[in-house]
Amino acid sequence: MHVYRVVLFSLWVMLAGCTNVAGDKIRTVTAPEGGTLPAEALMRTAVDFFTEAGYACSPEADSRLRCRKDIRDLYIHQTHTVVEVFPEGDSDGSDRYLLIATRWDEGMIPGEFISSEFANADVADFCAALQVSEQGLCRIEE
């Protein structure tokens, strides 16, 4: 009976899988010097940019945006990245927004074999596009 429990537990552990999350550096998006940062314009720009980059975006009514992109979809392991943009603090009328990117690894590859380092090139490109269009500036939070 003891061997049966060990085999059953081992099988359960193998099939249960792992979820690992790694985050990029948090960025604050602010208005360019002497300018304003309207929420509608920022969200529209972000949706257009990330949709073109292959993300599925779901804007929310309260000036929040969540975009998801599948990076790897194997039988035993899936990886996707999530980008979120939302006002800093509790107020909706903020001129500062947080830009957060995370990578989600789910499947049967243990976390020891997955890098905990993550840098989302799409987020860096979005920040560069904001600066070039003089719509906003991204600053990395320390």
What labels describe this entry?
TATA-Binding Protein; elongated; 7-stranded antiparallel sheet; 29% helix; alpha+beta; 37% strand
Would you kindly provide a written description of the structure presented here, covering whatever features stand out?
This protein has 142 residues and is of the alpha+beta class. It has one domain: TATA-Binding Protein. The model has no long low-confidence stretch (mean pLDDT 85). A hairpin with a 3-residue loop joins strand 4 (64-73) and strand 5 (77-87). The protein has helices at 2-16, 39-52, 121-132; strands at 18-23, 27-30, 56-60, 64-73, 77-87, 96-107, 137-140. 29% of the residues lie in helices and 37% in strands.
Summarize the structure.
The protein has helices at residues 2-16, 39-52, 121-132; strands at 18-23, 27-30, 56-60, 64-73, 77-87, 96-107, 137-140. With 142 residues, the chain is of the alpha+beta class. This is Lipoprotein.
- The global form is elongated
Indicate the percent of residues in helices. 25-40%
- What average pLDDT do the residues reach? 85
Approximate strand percentage: 35-45%
- The overall strand count is 7
CATH topology-level name: TATA-Binding Protein
Question: Structural class, from secondary structure content?
Answer: alpha+beta
Query: How many domain units?
Result: 1
Task: Report the C-alpha radius of gyration, rounded.
Answer: 19 Å
Looking at the overall shape, the CATH architecture is 2-Layer Sandwich
Counted by DSSP, the helix tally is 3
Give a quick account of the main beta sheet: strands, pairing sense, barrel closure.
7 strands, antiparallel
Distance between the termini: 55 Å
- Give the class-level CATH name: Alpha Beta
